[in-house]
Design goal:
The protein has helices at about 5-15, 20-30, 75-90, 95-100, 105, 115-140, and strands at about 55-60, 65-70. The protein is mainly alpha-helical and about 140 residues long. The protein has a single domain (about 5-140), classed as Sufe protein. Chain: A (Alpha-Beta Complex). Strand 1 and strand 2 (about 65-70) form a beta hairpin. It is globular and about 45 Å long.
Length: about 140
């Protein structure tokens, strides 16, 4: 699936919920289904700077695509990174760099997060893009 198709699917999923309590529950459930990151990858190098909670993001490069694994010590934050990985996982660096995560505004996510969590969300997106840029320059 393309990044655009995945984002459209997320927007449709969020349209099914009547209120933000249900949406928060959905985000938390996404976090619970996030594949476990290896303890060996829970290092300071993999910590995303700018997040109030601890968020670890590990990247592998397989067959020209980035494969992410992540974890967080906060359940909502873990759900947020799970949402982002649903969009960006298993995509090429160029696809990631060329994509704008418009689903965040479409579903109203940023407006329904505390200012520190909203900043953390932006830090997560920025880190994913930086990793894509790094792998593009390495492999390009």
């Amino acid at each position: 699936m393309t990044i655009k198709e995945i984002q459209e699917e997320i927007i449709e999923d969020f349209d099914l919920f009547e209120d933000w309590m249900q949406r928060y529950e959905f985000i938390i459930e996404m976090g619970k289904s996030l594949p476990k990151i290896s303890e060996a990858n829970k290092t300071d190098d993999n910590l995303i700077k700018g997040c109030q909670s601890k968020v670890w993001l590990h990247t592998d490069y397989k067959d020209g695509k980035l494969v992410f694994s992540a974890d967080s010590d906060a359940i909502l934050t873990k759900g947020i990174i799970a949402l982002l990985l649903k969009v960006f996982n298993d995509q090429t660096p160029d696809e990631i760099l060329g994509a704008e995560p418009y689903f965040i505004d479409e579903i109203g996510l940023k407006e329904h997060l505390s200012p520190t969590r909203a900043n953390g969300l932006l830090s997560m997106v920025k880190q994913i893009k930086l990793l894509a840029l790094m792998y593009k320059s390495k492999k390009g």
